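User: I'm new to structure prediction. If I give you an amino acid sequence, what do you actually give back? Let's try with this one:
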Amino acid sequence: MKMSINRRQISRRSILAGAAALGLTSTLAACGGSDDDSGDSDSGPVKLTYWSWAPNMEKVAAIWNKKNPDITVTVSKQASGGEIVSKLITAKKAGNAPDLIQVEYQSLPTLVSNDVLADITKYAADTKSQFAEGLWGMVTLGTDALYAIPQDAGPLMFYYREDLFKKHGLTVPKTWTEFAETARAAKKAVPDAYLTTFSSNDPGLFAGLAQQAGGKWWTVDSGGKWTVGIDDAATKQVAEFWGGLVQEGVIDNQPMYTPAWNNALNKGTHLAWVSAVWAPGVLVSSAPDTKGKWRMAPLPQWKSGENATGSWGGSSTGVSTDSKHAEAAAKFATWLNTDPEALAALVKEVAIYPAATKGQSGDVLTTPEFFSNQADFYTTAGEIAATTAAAAWGPNVNTAYTTFQDAFGKATKAKKEAQFDSALATVQSKTFADMKKQGFEVTEA
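Assistant: Good question. You get back a string of structure tokens that encode the predicted 3D arrangement of the chain. For your 445 residues, that looks like this:
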């Protein structure tokens, strides 16, 4: 996705977009930019538009509208991913971006760099205590500015067939070293099966695994100079680990979300799945015959005793710099993502896992039907979510993800660890080149 960013925005906004990686805070707070709100003092009724791709979000907004007739929110259904980002940038250029925006965490730096998102610190900074530190860092970008309020979270976990693990005497891995040992043991016990697969179609999962390992793909210094480090030591460790297991033949090399993958889960020729908290909903349709046979555990760690996870997915609610009613919009965004009734509605109607810690427990989160043997599913999920590591996103995630799918697609097909390494180098070089072409001041780690 191409971005048109003038030099003034580069020097001001790019600092914010990568500051999370350096832990820069108060020194950057003044870089907020064009979030001035001239409509907060309006005395008449306020009408807000909210761009969201989540199903049934209008039902949640209806609860708000009934209680707040002076601030009416209309949900406009949009496509997700890169499509909504491109559409938002175009709308900003025309001066007609919506008041409220659903934004994936990895897209925040792109929208901040394009001056789409307003700094709503003065309206919603007091919500910080309601979210895990790692998630809060994703919406503040490591600064004192606040560009969105966390909406839903996607902490990574380890899912496994409890019945098959018991049958074949397999151990639930607590470290990645143990994970490799379990993969070998599974292959030995069931030659026509695999513990799981490495999917080149899913860069978001790989990014989450790198995040857990400590990867910092984009960083920026106090002068606004970016560094692209997608092939840093932590991420190389992840790539080489999975590439080695694929080459060894104990991990499958097939993409996820295909009929063949569904069949592998359903028939038990994939005994486990590294996925996020939303995985139970996928299993309902992908592996219908396995109900009640799964169990969830924390993600394996790189060192024994560590306690961290990455994330795959999740989004936030931001306010656009075009909104004439930023305070009203921020009030709705706060209610949507922190009010108990709103959180319950998000779970029931939208089927998300709330980012707010108080929304990650309670009667509304009933044990998933596929995990009837794990009554503490959401208690465990909440404990895992609290350990989400900070992510370091940059302004051209889409380029990195597209390159990943191509380069790692070839590497998984070749089943060569060395090619996993070279694929990572390709993602690094093309992401760097793309930023340089767009006019960012950038270097390589």
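You can read the tokens as a compact description of the fold. Here is one thing that stands out. Residues 417-438 form the longest helix (22 residues).
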